[in-house]
Amino acid sequence: MEEIYAKKNETCELIKAQPETVQFLLNYSKSMHIVDYDGLKFENNKN
Amino acid sequence: MEVKIEDSVLVREYISGDEKALSILINRHNQRISSFIYSKVLDRDITEDIFQDTFIKVINTLKKGSYSEEGKFLPWVMRIAHNLIIDHFRKNKRMPMFEGSDDFNIFSVIGDDKLNAEKQIIKNQIDSDLRELVDELPEDQREVLLMRIYKDMSFKEISENTGVSINTALGRMRYALINLRKIIDKHNIVLTN
């Protein structure tokens, strides 16, 4: 009997970023402010 | 019935200052973006890092008002993630990381064989102590020992330079070493590194 050498398809793993990572991003967003000075935009992190 | 707010609306709300809109956007696309990154890098920690960097770029761009792809939020975020994945592989190609295991330590192969500062000082001290001890030897023995050890001359060369036979030079060397040991024992000198 012939052997099938076809590579088994890897199952796609569904994962999610940790809640801490999401919380960090939300905090980062809250602390981030853009300062517009003379047509230039500066990132300002109020931490 | 819960009404699903469009991404484009949430993006507009976020740009106008509603931080909650960002939370909805991140949670809505978390699984899709994380799984996409993971399917390429196959490492949970790297996935977290790239996910975080992706959204930091998203936040910066939205807050600066540079975002102009309304209605295409997810493809735009996926493209940022994709670029960061490429950056990650490029960086790793330039600086491949080698992790040693418990039974193999990379530093056993690439270790620095130079002495550390403390051991170098001790070695210098021993060298200078030994030199003083050599000066205590009788002149003929001292001469042979200096030529052999410090000048790296062969016994043939020593015999030619001192005008004695090779056997005599060998004998003087032997006695030089015996006498050095005697001096060391007599004065209880410790020469170790």
UniProtKB/TrEMBL annotation, chain A:
Q: Which domain of life is it from?
A: Bacteria
Q: What is this protein called?
A: Uncharacterized protein
From TrEMBL, chain B:
Biological process (GO) annotations held by this record are:
DNA-templated transcription initiation
Superkingdom to which the source organism belongs: Bacteria
Please list the GO terms describing molecular function.
DNA binding; sigma factor activity
Boundaries of each RNA polymerase sigma factor 70 region 4 type domain copy? 129-168
Keywords recorded for this protein, A-Z: DNA-binding, Sigma factor, Transcription, Transcription regulation
Q: InterPro entries recorded for this chain?
A: RNA_pol_sigma-70-like, RNA_pol_sigma-70_dom, RNA_pol_sigma70_r2, RNA_pol_sigma70_r4_t2, RNA_pol_sigma_r2, RNA_pol_sigma_r3/r4-like, WH-like_DNA-bd_sf
Domain RNA polymerase sigma-70 region as annotated: residue spans: 25-94
**A Pfam family in this protein?**
Sigma70_r2
Record-linked PANTHER family: RNA POLYMERASE ECF-TYPE SIGMA FACTO, RNA POLYMERASE SIGMA FACTOR HI_1459-RELATED
Family, as annotated? Belongs to the sigma-70 factor family. ECF subfamily.
Q: What is this protein called?
A: RNA polymerase sigma-70 factor (ECF subfamily)
